[in-house]
């Protein structure tokens, strides 16, 4: 055995649990985002990171110190951070003359950068600037994407997927309907992306569905897309691959058509024509002697009940 | 007269209904796509660009109106879902969400199946199936059900037996209890070694062979790249013999493991070169001045010091107690196994004993 083949074994139960939590799983954990300040982040970028942290809170890590790194030039430090804090989403903020108020949003696959997209912040309204009531921490937001650009352009499509991944929070089986009070609305027009967050007010409408009123809550951002780094097709495909155990099992002989009608195919045994009930006639009736002979042949249990 | 009145009342009621519904209904050119598992709505209609191009308040109002309409549609969908009151009649209304449909990339690749152990491979080959055995068996002496194994097991613990048979042909002076104890210890040690071997093999299979493909990410380490290049170079029909070379690459193709391959000079060939080589060797041998490669010597010295330090540390650990000693032994046994495999046949008498002497 080479020294390289040695298995690193956890020495304590706690270390074991820690490692188990990080192992790949069938049903994955909720993705956690790390929010990193670059070497020269200005006040606005810092505020943006803080606000996003407030929105994402239980599933985010805010790095308090500056980290001098450039994600588009060298990804090693991001990969290191990702491994360190077991995060697969990141938002990196920086500011310089060439790219003022810069945000890099991205995600990891297997601790390697999968996609990242650079966004410039043109306008920013903070959570604190809007004097309205806020949502409680950890509210699952409703996500809405408006604009044909999100469907037409490949980069925008990937950005949409990235934003959904970033903001959707945990997947839940049930949801309290009155607790739906937070909307994130993304609009893509004229090469700009308007991110707005609103608080939802449910008003009585007289019918079952309530009428919706929205109230500006913050943070709101006007973004422009800058550089992008998208995963190659085969890597992206690899990352989308679902384990076999999670795929729904195919049921045999059941099919659906476009209208949702279910069709079933059944296989019949060959019919035994000897037992076919034909017309009853007195002449074909069994005589008592024949019946007795038959009864004696039947198993004792049955004869008892008879 | 009365009939007219009824119609009027109905019409008024209908109008009222429609009024109520109007506050909830939103018209869109293209229908929205929903993924209710993610609480997600995708609106493919191009937004009114003219209004959005304008300055501050007007644009905000436009965006708010757009967001309101879309949210209304999404909420309508969510309210359609099957819902029930959580925790009795007075509880909050809770809707059951469907599975999310929007495909998002995973965080980590799906877990690899655990590779079979050596025994499992063998069992599959031979078609040996696991046979289920009850954990409790009837103990004839104690007249009760007892465990098949372990503490208070049926038939009594053989290690605690007060009587041991001397096998035929055995040395009558030999302590049979000690022999049994020793054999048991050896079995345990061998089992542990095999377990570690299985683990190491699983580890190797997990890292080296299938997971090696180069991820097309932006960044690869130097080692990774050179490893892949080396493998690619020898992956031809001629094992890389006729592969064109890069300027700084060596002429001979690298071996797969990355080590150097021993090569011999041809028996017949360049006589002059052979003579000069031999003369050089003789000159070196006869000269009084030692040939010293400084870097090599320094490296050697450093390595020696390191090894000594490690040995001293190991000695210190061995004095700590039973637990520390045991851990150390298992660690060492895995390293030494290759050497031991060459020296001895498995099942040879004193593997455990020899190991203890070394430790």
TrEMBL record, chain A:
<dbReference type="InterPro" id="IPR007109">
    <property type="entry name" value="Brix"/>
</dbReference>
<dbReference type="GO" id="GO:0000463">
    <property type="term" value="P:maturation of LSU-rRNA from tricistronic rRNA transcript (SSU-rRNA, 5.8S rRNA, LSU-rRNA)"/>
</dbReference>
<dbReference type="GO" id="GO:0005730">
    <property type="term" value="C:nucleolus"/>
</dbReference>
<feature type="region of interest" description="Disordered">
    <location>
        <begin position="270"/>
        <end position="306"/>
    </location>
</feature>
<dbReference type="GO" id="GO:0019843">
    <property type="term" value="F:rRNA binding"/>
</dbReference>
<dbReference type="InterPro" id="IPR039770">
    <property type="entry name" value="Rpf2"/>
</dbReference>
<comment type="similarity">
    <text>Belongs to the RPF2 family.</text>
</comment>
<keyword id="KW-0539">Nucleus</keyword>
<feature type="compositionally biased region" description="Basic residues">
    <location>
        <begin position="277"/>
        <end position="286"/>
    </location>
</feature>
<dbReference type="Pfam" id="PF04427">
    <property type="entry name" value="Brix"/>
</dbReference>
<protein>
    <recommendedName>
        <fullName>Ribosome production factor 2 homolog</fullName>
    </recommendedName>
</protein>
<dbReference type="GO" id="GO:0000027">
    <property type="term" value="P:ribosomal large subunit assembly"/>
</dbReference>
Automatic annotation (TrEMBL), chain B:
<protein>
    <recommendedName>
        <fullName>Ribosome biogenesis regulatory protein</fullName>
    </recommendedName>
</protein>
<dbReference type="GO" id="GO:0005730">
    <property type="term" value="C:nucleolus"/>
</dbReference>
<comment type="similarity">
    <text>Belongs to the RRS1 family.</text>
</comment>
<feature type="region of interest" description="Disordered">
    <location>
        <begin position="239"/>
        <end position="269"/>
    </location>
</feature>
<keyword id="KW-0690">Ribosome biogenesis</keyword>
<dbReference type="GO" id="GO:0000447">
    <property type="term" value="P:endonucleolytic cleavage in ITS1 to separate SSU-rRNA from 5.8S rRNA and LSU-rRNA from tricistronic rRNA transcript (SSU-rRNA, 5.8S rRNA, LSU-rRNA)"/>
</dbReference>
<dbReference type="GO" id="GO:0030687">
    <property type="term" value="C:preribosome, large subunit precursor"/>
</dbReference>
<dbReference type="InterPro" id="IPR007023">
    <property type="entry name" value="Ribosom_reg"/>
</dbReference>
<dbReference type="Pfam" id="PF04939">
    <property type="entry name" value="RRS1"/>
</dbReference>
<feature type="region of interest" description="Disordered">
    <location>
        <begin position="303"/>
        <end position="359"/>
    </location>
</feature>
<dbReference type="GO" id="GO:0042273">
    <property type="term" value="P:ribosomal large subunit biogenesis"/>
</dbReference>
<comment type="function">
    <text>Involved in ribosomal large subunit assembly.</text>
</comment>
<feature type="region of interest" description="Disordered">
    <location>
        <begin position="90"/>
        <end position="117"/>
    </location>
</feature>
<keyword id="KW-0539">Nucleus</keyword>
<feature type="compositionally biased region" description="Basic residues">
    <location>
        <begin position="313"/>
        <end position="343"/>
    </location>
</feature>
């Amino acid at each position: 055995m080479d020294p390289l083949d040695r298995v690193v074994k956890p020495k304590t139960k706690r270390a074991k649990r820690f490692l188990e939590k990080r192992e790949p799983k069938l049903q994955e954990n909720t993705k956690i985002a790390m929010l990193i300040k670059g070497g020269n982040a200005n006040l606005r970028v810092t505020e943006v990171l803080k606000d996003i942290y407030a929105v994402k809170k239980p599933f985010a890590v805010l790095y308090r110190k500056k980290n001098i790194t450039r994600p588009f030039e060298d990804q090693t430090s991001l990969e290191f951070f990702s491994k360190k804090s077991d995060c697969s989403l990141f938002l990196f903020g920086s500011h310089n003359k060439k790219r003022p108020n810069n945000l890099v949003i991205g995600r990891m696959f297997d601790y390697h950068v999968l996609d990242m997209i650079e966004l410039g912040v043109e306008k920013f309204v903070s959570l604190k600037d809007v004097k309205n009531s806020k949502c409680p921490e950890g509210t699952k937001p409703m996500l809405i994407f408006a604009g044909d650009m999100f469907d037409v352009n490949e980069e925008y499509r990937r950005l949409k997927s990235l934003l959904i991944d970033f903001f959707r929070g945990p997947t839940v089986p049930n949801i309290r309907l009155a607790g739906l009070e937070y909307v994130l609305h993304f609009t893509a027009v004229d090469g700009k992306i308007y991110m707005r967050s609103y608080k939802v007010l449910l008003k009585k409408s007289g019918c079952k569905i309530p009428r919706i009123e929205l109230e500006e809550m913050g943070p709101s951002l006007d973004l422009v897309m800058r550089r992008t780094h998208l995963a190659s097709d085969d890597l992206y495909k690899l990352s989308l691959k679902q384990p076999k155990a999670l795929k729904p099992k195919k049921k045999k002989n059941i099919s659906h058509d476009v209208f949702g009608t279910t069709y079933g195919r059944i296989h019949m045994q060959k019919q035994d024509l000897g037992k076919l009930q034909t017309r009853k006639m007195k002449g074909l009736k069994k005589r008592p002697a024949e019946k007795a002979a038959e009864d004696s042949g039947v198993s004792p249990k049955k004869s008892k009940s008879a | 007269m009365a009939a007219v009145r009824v119609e009027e009342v109905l019409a008024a009621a209908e109008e009222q209904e429609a009024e109520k519904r109007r506050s909830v209904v939103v018209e869109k050119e293209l229908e929205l796509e929903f993924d209710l598992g993610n609480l997600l709505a995708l609106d493919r209609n191009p937004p009114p660009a003219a209004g959005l191009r304008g300055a501050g308040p007007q644009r905000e109002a436009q965006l708010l109106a757009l967001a309101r309409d879309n949210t209304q549609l999404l909420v309508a969908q969510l309210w359609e879902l099957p819902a029930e009151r959580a925790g009795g009649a007075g509880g909050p209304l809770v809707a059951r969400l469907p599975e999310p449909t929007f495909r998002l990339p995973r965080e980590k690749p799906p877990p690899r199946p655990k590779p079979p152990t050596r025994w499992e491979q063998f069992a599959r080959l031979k078609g040996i199936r696991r046979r289920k055995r009850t954990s409790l068996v009837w103990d004839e002496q104690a007249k009760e059900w007892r465990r098949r194994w372990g503490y208070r097991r049926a038939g009594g613990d053989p290690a605690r037996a007060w009587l041991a048979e001397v096998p035929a042909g055995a040395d009558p002076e030999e302590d049979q209890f000690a022999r049994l104890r020793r054999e048991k210890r050896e079995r345990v040690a061998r089992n542990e070694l095999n377990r570690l071997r299985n683990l190491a093999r699983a580890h190797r299979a997990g890292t080296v062979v299938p997971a090696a493909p180069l991820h097309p990410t932006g960044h690869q380490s130097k080692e990774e790249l050179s490893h892949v290049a080396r493998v690619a170079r020898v992956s031809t029909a001629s094992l890389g013999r006729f592969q064109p070379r890069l300027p700084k690459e060596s002429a001979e193709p690298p071996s797969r493991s990355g080590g150097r391959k021993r090569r011999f000079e041809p028996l017949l060939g360049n006589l002059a070169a052979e003579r000069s080589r031999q003369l050089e060797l003789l000159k070196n041998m006869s000269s009084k001045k030692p040939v010293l490669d400084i870097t090599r010597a320094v490296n050697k010295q450093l390595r020696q010091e390191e090894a000594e330090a490690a040995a001293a540390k190991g000695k210190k650990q061995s004095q700590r107690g039973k637990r520390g000693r045991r851990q150390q032994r298992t660690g060492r046994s895995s390293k030494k196994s290759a050497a031991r495999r060459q020296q001895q046949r498995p099942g040879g008498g004193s593997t455990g004993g020899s190991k203890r002497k070394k430790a």
